[in-house]
Amino acid sequence: MQTKRANKYGFCFGVKRAIRLAEQNRGAITLGELIHNQKEIDRLKMDYNVNVETNLDEIKDGSSVIIRTHGIQKNDFKRLKDSNINIVDATCPFVTKPQQICEKMSKEGYEIIIFGDENHPEVKGVVSYCTMPYQVVLQKEQIKINHNTKVALISQTTKNIDNFLQIVNFLIASCAEVRVFNTICNATFENQQSAKILAKEVDVLVVVGGKQSSNTKQLLNISLEYCKDSYCIEDESELKEEWFREKKLCGITAGASTPDWIIKKVEDRIKTF
Ligand code: SF4
């Protein structure tokens, strides 16, 4: 097999920063998974003694706590600040932005609409900054419209811009006042655009990323639109030889939490088929 990587793929600025902070804080605890990639979390544990804790009550005074890229809820952040815990804030600045917008627009009396997955840690963190009513939706059909309300729209950072625009159009046609904040992060946007271009020119496409990773799922959905033989894997052990039969060129892209060493192993294995 021949392989071709997307122009933009893999580790983003926010994830690189979080990993650097974890490596600089040997023995620290991350509140929830630092990033959505189990193998990289295992590496940090093995090489830097950085462990994951999901329960705030279990964290002892004097510990160092790294806040994950997806951020945490406002009350949890306050609890950490009020205790004797050393906070290492690895919240991606692209995630802090929608948190701040929610807080500000709530204060100004706007109902908040968030395009995103309500169970995703980033979205749970963002909604905790709302002081006005809010709705979390994945498609326009889920929005409950009150024509006289003024609404502010934001997006989960890793969502697809085309789907976001559908919601923008719907709201503008339905509400008296709409404030739109494009909070889709640049790294996500660039990776998605590159995946789209690559998917159009290859016979088969492999997306490497964590099963829980939202931006990885988006890359797969986009790839499937243009290349029906697109697959998502976490590492090279999940590759199946039959995917590559009678194919010549395999495209490779990767989610923002996927380290280069995993991508390299996947590519090396694909070349053997
Ligand atoms: S995908 Fe975007 S929002 Fe998420 S960590 Fe990376 S840069 Fe930040």
List the quaternary state of the chains. single chain
- What are the segments in which pLDDT stays under 50 over at least 5 consecutive residues? none
Would you state the CATH class of the largest domain?
Alpha Beta
How would you describe the shape?
flat
Q: How would you summarize what this structure contains?
A:
With 273 residues, this protein is α/β, with parallel strands linked by helices.
Explain what this protein looks like in three dimensions.
The protein is α/β, with parallel strands linked by helices and 273 residues long. It has three domains: 2-9 and 186-271, 4-hydroxy-3-methylbut-2-enyl diphosphate reductase, catalytic domain (Cobalt-precorrin-4 Transmethylase, domain 1, 3-Layer(aba) Sandwich); 13-91, Rossmann fold (3-Layer(aba) Sandwich), CATH 3.40.50.11270; 94-180, Cobalt-precorrin-4 Transmethylase, domain 1 (3-Layer(aba) Sandwich). The chain has nine helices and twelve strands. Strand 6, helix 5 (121-127) and strand 7 (134-137) form a beta-alpha-beta unit. Helix 4 (93-107) runs parallel beside helix 5. The termini are close together. The chain binds iron/sulfur cluster.
Using brief descriptors, characterize the structure shown:
273 residues; Rossmann fold; 3 domains; 4-stranded parallel sheet; 9 helices; 12 strands; flat; binds iron/sulfur cluster
Map the helices and strands.
Blueprint (H helix, E strand, L loop, with lengths): L1 E4 L7 H12 L4 E3 L6 H11 L2 E3 L10 E4 L6 H9 L3 E4 L3 H15 L3 E5 L5 H7 L6 E4 L12 E6 L5 H14 L2 E4 L5 H16 L2 E5 L5 H13 L3 E4 L15 E6 L5 H12 L2
Parallel strand pairs: 1-12, 2-3, 2-4, 4-5, 6-7, 6-8, 8-9, 10-11, 10-12
Helix pairs in contact: 4-5, 7-8
The structure holds iron/sulfur cluster.
Iron/sulfur cluster binds next to helix 1, helix 4 and helix 7.
